[in-house]
Amino acid sequence: MEIEATPLSPQQQAYNDGGGSDQRAGAGTGAKPLYRNPVVVVNFLLMAVGTVCGPLLFRAYFLHGGTRKWLTCLLQTAAWPLLLPPLCVSFFSRRRRQREESATEAAPLSLMSGRLLAATVAIGLVIGIIDFLYAYGLAYLPVSTSSILVSTQLAFTAVFALVVVRHRFTAFSVNAVVLLVVGAAMLGLNGGGDRPAGVSRAQYYAGFAMTLGSAALYGLVLPLMELSQAQHAARAGAAVTYTLVLEIQMVIGITATAFRAVGMLVNREFHTMMDAVILRGPKEYLMNLVQEIPDEARRFDLGEAGYYFMLVSSATAFQCFFIGTIGAIFYGSALLAGVIMTLLISVTEVFAVIFFHEPFNGTKGVALAISIWGFISYFYGEIRTNEQQSNTSTDKEHLDP
To answer: What gap in Å lies between CA 316 and CA 122, rounded to an integer?
Structure first.
């Protein structure tokens, strides 16, 4: 399995050239379009699976008797060990190649520098906070409302991309940002109209605010990921490989999972375990730790098998989402990742209405239409910008002697 040799991504090329991320690598040079790269297609498919299936599975968990918000947070990155097999294959491939070339230095176990590792750990901690806010919001909001709120991350991504990686704004980008913010505001004015049964108005508004907060933070994290990759490429003087991208995702997963595990104990979600540590010692603590999840599984509406299937499939879906997202940033940009996520929101909306029979009133429909309009505006603007850059590059080649 060879996943080392990959071309410079747009943001890496831009930083190596000394410019901002608005410069497009390969514009006008005959670079292969993204949709013709099989690895890119796989990453986009992984994003689709995670973006659509993850929220639906989590909502099903809460609807059928699940109550543990910190557990759902933990599951969002707990499947990071799935990255170990491809990374191991890549390591042994590097070592075999160096042996064949009679290299004196052994193949490094990791491709990450110390500075990149520190930045990745910090991003992992922020993602841990994001996922707690998201899981809390999803416990009190319908999937359709939560999905539309999450779609506002594109607006935040656009703003932070301008500030962090100097992405160029166009009239179409500004239009998309305004439309998405208006869509979210309409949902706020409609607050409580689609409140699930058993959820108080205070819980509904708390879920609304925390979901919107998670979207804002995620809008910051995406450009930070792009910036860390670009700066590493600029310092190393070479392209970031896809193996390094997987290593970054694994470190993010480990860090975020550890943060949530600590938060689970601090939050005393497993309060009986904490009492056992204080009163009865570590042995009783471990016994309660083992018992809490099976107890909830026995009370789960879909049965124990359905409960464990829900946990495993949720963890796998969100790992697919994170791998696909960081791959989209690697091959494109943070804003591209945000746009793809926004596009997939409409698919999640449809499935939420089909499977959970969630209400879809007129205000929510208008908000969704405005969000889609914002996405189309952005997408059309990007096409126009790329065509103009390509034409400018072609004209310059014709003028050069």
So the answer is: 23
Q: Which two tokens stand for residue 18?
A: 């000394």
Between CA 249 and CA 121 the distance in angstroms is 10
pLDDT in tens, 9-28: 444 454 444 444 333 333 33
Model confidence, pTM: 0.72
Contact at 8 Å (CB) between 204 and 195? yes
Q: For residue range 349-362, what is the model confidence (pLDDT) as tens digits?
A: 778 777 877 676 67
Instruction: Report which of 232, 233, 215, 227 is spatially closest to residue 162, judged by C-alpha positions.
Output: 227
- Buried b or exposed e, range 291-322, using 16+ CB within 10 angstroms: ebeeebbeebebeeeebeebbebbbbbbbbbb
| Residues ≥6 apart with Cβ < 8 Å to 317 | 49, 50, 53, 54, 57
CA angle 335, 338, 344 (to 5 degrees): 145
Alpha-carbon distance values, 323 to 76, 125, 245 (Å): 12, 17, 9
- Asked if 233 and 8 touch (Cβ cutoff 8 Å), the reply is yes
Using DSSP, state whether 242 is helix, strand or coil: helix
Read off the tokens for 131.
Answer: 């996922």
The CB density around residue 393, as the number of other CB atoms within 10 Å, is 15
Question: Buried b / exposed e across 190-202, counting CB within 10 Å, b at 16+?
Answer: beeebbbeebeee
3-state secondary structure of 401: coil
